[in-house]
Each structure stands twice: as C-alpha cells, then as structure tokens.
Amino acid sequence: MTAPVVPVGQPRDVPRVIWSWAFYDWANSAFTTLVVTFIYSYYFTQALAPDGITGTTWWSRGIGLSAVLVALLSPIMGAAADRGGTRKRFLAVATGICVLGSVTLTFIAPGMANAALLALIVFVVANVAFETSMVFYNAFLPTIASPEKIGENGFNARAPNPGGGLVRGVQPAPVLQCAGAPHRRQGGDGRAGGPSV
Question: Could you tell me the CA-to-CA distances from 61 to 6, 15, 37, 83, 86 in Å, in that order?
C-alpha cells in the first residue's frame, strides 16, 4: 500500500473539513438503516415478493450479489479514482446513483409486472453504488487528517453514524403502522423508505 498523495500546501486536521467528511457518513447511514435493513427490506419481503420466505431469500441473495460486485469493483474503481485524482467525482457519481436508486424504489408497486425482480435489480444497483461510495469516502481520510489524528478523526466520524439512520427512521413511522394491514399488497406502505433516504 502506498502513502496517500496529499497536495503540497493542503492543510490537514481542519475542523470544518473533518466535520464535512463526518457528516457525509452520518447522512448516508439512512440508506443502510431504512432500505437495506428495516423498512424497505420488510416491504419487499411482505408486499413485493410472493411470500415472506421467498422474499427473505431473494433479499438475502440481493445482498450477497451486492457484496460480490463490490468486492470485484472496489479495487478497480478505487485505483482509477486515485490515479486520476477524481475521488470527489467518483464519490458524487456513486452517491447520485444510490439516491436515484432509492427514489426509483418508491415507484415500484406490488401490482406491477415483475415488481419484485425490478425492485431487487434497482436495490442491487443502489447498494453497490452506496458501498463503492464508501470506498471513495474512506480514501479521503488520509488526505484530510494527519497520521497522528487519523484514528481519532475516523472514530469521531463513525461514532454518531447510527444517528442519521435514526433521524430518517422517524420520518416514515406512520407508514410502518400500516405495514401489517391486509391491504399491504396493494402498495403504499414501505415505499416511503426510499425517498426519505
């Protein structure tokens, strides 16, 4: 592993820069909280899939496929971003794809043809984008923090991380009240998790 390339004269440990870096992590934690783990995953298994067991199996396979794709793509994309000095651009594109995927999930309703398959494909794309965005995000730390402060700054950014997901989790709370209702297969319950991210 090579040392990070820091532009000459670029100050490190600047509080404003460190806080900006930390807030990105805080804000995007809503995706994993709402879409991957709690609200949309439940909606997928209960409303889009043929039944809960099949839905859970399909969702798990989507997560697994995402992990394999991230493992294959991350080293290549990370090297390309480092070599071209375009980490920020790669981060913005990956974040944009994740946001677009999250919003798209909102429009996939149970009555649509192949709704579960479509939702799973969109989810995998969004999840891969989310995870690769974290590759670019993490690559910024050595360039904004001094070697002596890298652990402290990394910890301080991650410590409040669940807060972003919890704050966003309150927004679609009324939706969760309907999650067990008999009409759930007609749509309108878990899709709110997507745009609130």
Answer: 40, 41, 14, 33, 32
Query: What would the mean pLDDT of 37-41 be, rounded to a whole number?
Result: 91
pLDDT per position as a tens digit, 115-173: 999 999 999 999 999 999 999 998 888 888 888 877 776 655 665 555 545 555 555 55
Cβ-contact 12, 144 below 8 angstroms: yes
Q: What is the pLDDT of residues 180-196, one digit of tens each?
A: 444 344 444 555 555 55
Separation between Cα atoms, residue 94 and residue 69, nearest integer Å: 14
pTM: predicted TM-score of the whole model, two decimal places:
0.79
Domain spans of the chain?
Answer: 32-180
**Residues contacting 24, CB < 8 A, separation 6+:** 137
* Three-state secondary structure of 110-173: CCCCCHHHHHHHHHHHHHHHHHHHHHHHHHHHHHHCCCCCHHHHHHHHHCCHHHHHHHHHHCCH
Q: Is 41 helix (H, G, I), strand (E, B) or coil?
A: helix
Which of the 8 DSSP states describes residue 106?
Answer: H
